[in-house]
Amino acid sequence: MNGKYFYYAIAALFGVLSSLVNFFPFFFLQLLFLYFLFNYKRFTTTQLWSIAGCFIIFLWIGHHSASNNFTVIPASTSTFYLQYTQDPKIDGDLFQVKATEQQYKEKVLVRYKIQSELEKEGLKTKKYYQYLCRVSGTLEKPKIAKNPNAFHYRNYLARKQIFWIIEIQENPLQNCAPQKPSPLVIFKQLRYTGIKYLESHFPVEIAALSAALIFGDQNLFDPDVLSAYQKTGLVHLLAISGLHVSLLIAMVFYLGIRSGLTKQSMINILLVLLPIYVILTGASPSVNRSVMMIFLVLLTVKWQARLKLLPLDAISLAFNIYLFISPMVIFDAGFQLSFSVSLVIILSAPYILQSYQRNITRMLVTSLAAQLAALPFLLYHYFEASFIGLFANMVYIPLFSFVYLPGLYLLFFIQFIFGKTPLIVTKLFLTIISLANQFIDYLADISFFHFIPGRPNLVLLIDYIFLLLAIFNLWEARTYSRKRIYLFIFSGLLMFSQLSWNWLDPYGEVTMIDVGQGDSILIRFPHGKGTYLIDTGGTVNFGEEKWRERAKEFEVGRDVVVPFLKGKGITKIDKLILTHGDMDHIGGTFSIMKELKVKQILMPSVAEPSTTELNIIKEAKKQKIPVLKVSAQDHWSNEESPFYILSPEKNYAGERNGGSIAFIAQIGGASWFFGGDLDQEGEEKIIKKYPHLQIDVLKAGHHGSKTSSAESFIKQISPKIALISAGENNRFGHPHQEVLDRLAKTKTIIYRTDLQGAITYKFYHGNGTFLPYIP
To answer: Of 148, 523, 543, 569, which sits most exposed with the smallest number of CB within 10 A?
Structure first.
């Protein structure tokens, strides 16, 4: 069976995907797979039946998992008996912890808003694992995605069998009774204690890196540093994986042998320690995969006379075991990346890596193979990839392998045993970590290496897979006269096929992005003929006390608008139109300017710009982005789509909303009115100046507030469609009922982001259709 377990892993994959994604396509692929094994691999009838049986078993496992993945807790429940099952996360005044509701035996997520700084410090020092706690609270459904390509939190939690968030109003440990701890609980508590020990005994830079490499916890990291690791494609070094586990096992094995233990004794010890290590490091997919593989390999060494296992067999068996236990993990990005990268490295080692004799070249080739293997998954989940990681790995893999990993373990044990570490050693590590973080921050800002084609659709995903298979097949071919030419061609197709697809797409769009209580509208013309963004949304901060502040506050531009644009493969904004100076319209501009190329900024011609507008102008000057102050009668054209500004007058000196840029445009066969937060007085001026103005699509002013969308204005322009951008359950009560009634009188169809998420008008030449993201 050597080397053949891989075929069972493929059958298991098709079986799970058939039940959890779509039956017919993956069942058809399984039939093709069996034909391939019969016709080209000369599998026997018995072997074919066994692989078909594997497919059926995993088809049933996936179906069973999906059919039992539902909640049993009644929505009206208000009293809960909880056992906390994971380390709590305390971020500012937010306390969050996973738990099991003991009455219903169901996983839940518990949230609590901390009341005081003293309570926060107390919660940090408490034990959570050895208690049964009675709490009162309300059940809430997790948030859903309301924009295309956005993170769907409800689905993410449901795949982890969590269906409810319990919002509690009292201290989560207020009514608790001690329980007899199980071995699992003891090791989880030990992990939590170890992380807290690092946090309290080391500088934050050393503590964060130690917690990640020793216990698999990244919560102590500065969000900006973690973001830099993600942008450069080096975040895998912070997640405990095969590299870390192998180095640690090698160190333990060496120390055991040097201490006088036999090889067989050390294997037995490691077989016991490995499951414990999984718990101590958080049981992430990469840890589980690495430990299962090493565990299986150690078993084969222990039973060498009876069983032999190739690395390919080890990863295939680990894959099947993992899917058998938790089929829903197939959707986890960490699981996909860990297995795909490891598989490619294992497959390429005998054929590709062995062709390169120099260690540096081999390391670079390994890094390239890993990046290629990860590419489809990175693009699907994160819409971009960074090829700077190819070269950065050359520096950071040795740094982590030979400096960070052994050094930080040594520091931890010295501190734990002797109560302190030599100051010079601590300072040395601080210096190294600080320099490495500065360098990675510099690398993260090099946009040249960022590849952002957007999220691939099914056709493009298949295209990526076949191109990668062709590249690896050519790469490992030892004698082929045109090898380099075809490698160049396939690599070019890999890089440019999706970019070409984006450019060739004949459809344009106008999308009102759901940014909560704010505005942001994308206008994109087909074939790259123009991409405009009207406002950027924004987060209004109310000056919280320092202890209440989150490590990384939610910011609409960075967390909503930029991912939305990158998901569509948009890297350039031709015109950024900022209608007026309110934060909920322009607060996200700085993130847009940082992450994307902005060619021009349009602002209203006002006598007194807001502080935010002045800061935007200052940043634009740094980046050499031209800023135009526009007013009534300014205009431009995009082929068949003219844009004409109606308001404000030059050097407007009135109230800020009244100075919003208001303009009309002909887009996709319809006439549009965009007016920011223009008030009723401004609307009245426009209809007096343009008495014959008629509009097909109205972007309702000020989020549907009664201070905009005057009855006379609505009556004259007589819109067929009205778009309202408002936050779900916003504190202002937008849109106001008066406005909805005014629009109803003219039989205007209303689309609202608070109810329907993003609203997209997709057009082809002179015809288009409105597509709300939530029907």
So the answer is: 543
State which H helix or E strand residue 647 sits in.
strand 641-647
pLDDT category, 480, cuts 50, 70, 90?
low
How far apart, in whole angstroms, are the C-alpha atoms of residue 519 and residue 586?
8
Identity (one letter) of the amino acid at 556? V
Question: Which residue's entry shows tokens 């938790």?
Answer: 326
The closest alpha carbon to 698, from 715, 722, 720, belongs to 722
Please state the φ and ψ torsions of residue 166, each to the nearest 5 degrees. -95, 115
Task: List Cβ<8 Å contacts ≥24 apart for 56-59.
Answer: 56/15, 57/12, 57/15, 58/11, 58/12, 58/13, 58/14, 58/15, 58/16, 58/19, 58/320, 58/323, 58/324, 58/327, 59/15, 59/16, 59/18, 59/19
Question: Cβ distance 742 to 711 under 8 Å?
Answer: yes
For residues 510 and 672, is the Cβ–Cβ distance under 8 A?
yes
Mean pLDDT to the nearest integer, 147-172: 95
Q: Taking the mean position of all CA atoms in its chain, how far away is CA 450?
A: 16
Q: What local confidence, expressed as pLDDT, does residue 305 receive?
A: 54
Residue 524, classed as helix, strand or coil, is strand
Per the document, the length of the chain is 775
CA-to-CA separations, 44 to 50, 299, 317, in angstroms, rounded: 10, 28, 21
Residue 166 pLDDT exceeds 80 = yes
Both structure tokens of 358: 């120099």
Q: Compute how many other C-beta atoms are within 10 angstroms of the C-beta atom of residue 496.
A: 12
Q: Which residues pair with 670 in a beta bridge?
A: 667
Q: Residues with Cβ < 8 Å from 448, sequence gap 6 or more?
A: none
Res 540: pLDDT: 78
pLDDT band at 366 (very low <50, low <70, confident <90, very high): confident
Which distant-in-sequence residues (6+ apart) come within 8 Å of 657 by Cβ? 580, 582, 676, 677, 678, 679, 682, 702, 707, 708
52 CB contacts (<8 Å, ≥6 apart)?
11, 30, 34
Residue written as tokens 């391939």?
36
pLDDT above 60 (res 1): no
What are the strands of the beta sheet with 670-674, ordered from one edge? 635-638, 641-647, 662-667, 670-674, 697-699, 721-724, 749-752
Q: Do 553 and 94 touch, CB atoms closer than 8 A? A: no
pLDDT in tens, 24-68: 999 999 999 999 999 988 889 999 999 999 999 999 999 999 999
**Token representation of residue 177:** 């009774």
pTM, 2 dp: 0.93
Q: Is the pLDDT of residue 704 over 60?
A: yes
Report the SS3 class of residue 192. Answer: helix
Q: Are 598 and 589 in contact (CB under 8 A)?
A: no
Q: How far apart are the first and last CA of the chain?
A: 51
Q: pLDDT value at position 401?
A: 86
Nearest to 569 by CA among 450, 459, 462: 450
Structure tokens at 487: 């490698």
- Give the C-alpha separation, 331 to 318, whole Å: 17
pLDDT digit string (tens) for 493-520? 999 999 999 999 999 999 999 999 999 9
Stretch 643-650: mean pLDDT: 96
CB-CB contact of 152 with 132 (8 Å): no
According to DSSP H, which parts of 452-597 are helical?
458-476, 483-504, 556, 562-567, 583-586, 589-595
Residue 111, beta-bridge partner list: 96, 167
In 9-40, which positions are buried (b, 16+ CB within 10 angstroms) versus exposed (e)? bbbbbbbbbbbbeeeeebbeebeebbeebeee
Q: Which pLDDT value is given to residue 534?
A: 98
Distance CA 269, CA 256 (A): 9
